[in-house]
Design goal:
Pfam families: DoxX_3. The chain is an alpha+beta fold. The chain has eight helices and seven strands; from the N terminus they run βααββββββαααααα.
Length: 305
């Protein structure tokens, strides 16, 4: 475990006992924690024994990772509760071989602080350690997002399934916009330099047909830049609002330049109206969207983005 441990912390407006219930009962835990799809407690022969359990994580349709865990060492001091964890899996599809960590519940004047720190050993030697450079940040992000989903569940009563449905629907739309802008900029403009694209450009601007080929490449590159800007989360709201306004304008401009495009199959009218409507849907979905940035990722640090 030579890499930096994963640390996540969030303040929740609830009691320590309430947070303990939602994190220690497997039927509740598996609902909010993105890292686990199913958690099953094993029967204990004695009450003082550590709580052993098995878990399953669905990675992709038809692909899952199963492992074991042991929760132990819970205690109270000044109202603080701590639950240590030992976990691992024998499945070689998982980069994680074995790890240890803890959850801590710290009471505050208004609510409590829920935090975790954990680390793990990877398999496959140097290859596994190289892969972990990418995998570890994903695990940290998944932990932080899960903590925010838990906090919203405890504070606002919104169930995790609803939160995750909204979260993944929103980012599916963002991925769609990235694809549309990237494809429209790259294929018909930069690579293909489609005659219709150049004809509409010369019709709607003072650019001559002689310079249309160069101009259409510039327009294509600008559209590729828009696709890349959608990869910056802070710009999403501005870009989505701009799309709601821009797509109707592009539709009118295209019809003015080439009226026949309004009657062609799969035409610009239906395409741009659809994209404008999806932009409105994305703006609605992003309200109260769960986010990993609500958590602290370093001890004593401000909220990370």
């Amino acid at each position: 475990m030579s890499n930096k441990p994963i640390y996540v912390e969030i303040d929740i407006d609830c009691s320590v006992d309430e947070a303990w219930t939602y994190t220690q009962q497997p039927q509740l835990h598996e609902q909010w924690d993105l890292r686990f799809s199913r958690i099953t407690y094993c029967d204990k022969a004695h009450e003082d024994e550590p709580q052993r359990f098995t878990y399953t994580t669905n990675v992709l349709p038809g692909i899952s990772v199963s492992g074991w865990g042991e929760s132990k060492g819970t205690h109270e001091k000044n109202g603080v509760k701590t639950s240590s964890l030992h976990f691992g899996t024998k499945q070689r599809i998982s980069p994680i071989q074995e790890g240890k960590g803890y959850w801590q519940y710290v009471p505050k004047q208004n609510g409590m602080t829920f935090l975790t720190q954990y680390d793990y050993d990877v398999r496959y030697g140097a290859i596994g350690r190289a892969f972990d450079v990418l995998f570890r940040p994903v695990m940290g992000w998944a932990t932080a997002l899960s903590f925010d989903v838990l906090a919203r569940w405890l504070e606002q009563g919104e169930r995790p399934r609803t939160q995750y449905r909204r979260f993944f629907s929103y980012y599916l739309l963002i991925a769609l916009f990235v694809f549309v802008w990237l494809y429209q900029g790259l294929v018909p403009k930069v690579i293909g330099q489609h005659p219709l694209e150049m004809a509409m450009l010369t019709e709607l601007s003072p650019i001559s047909s002689q310079h249309a080929a160069t101009a259409i490449v510039v327009v294509g590159l600008l559209e590729i830049v828009v696709a890349l800007l959608f990869c910056v989360r802070k710009l999403h709201r501005v870009l989505l609002i701009a799309q709601v306004v821009l797509f109707p304008l592009l539709t009118v401009s295209a019809i003015v330049a080439a009226p026949h495009v309004a009657t062609d199959p799969f035409n610009v009218v239906t395409f741009n109206v659809l994209l404008s409507g999806l932009s409105i849907a994305a703006l609605m979905l992003r309200v109260e969207l769960p986010t990993a940035s609500s958590c602290k990722r370093k001890r004593g640090a401000s909220h990370d983005l």
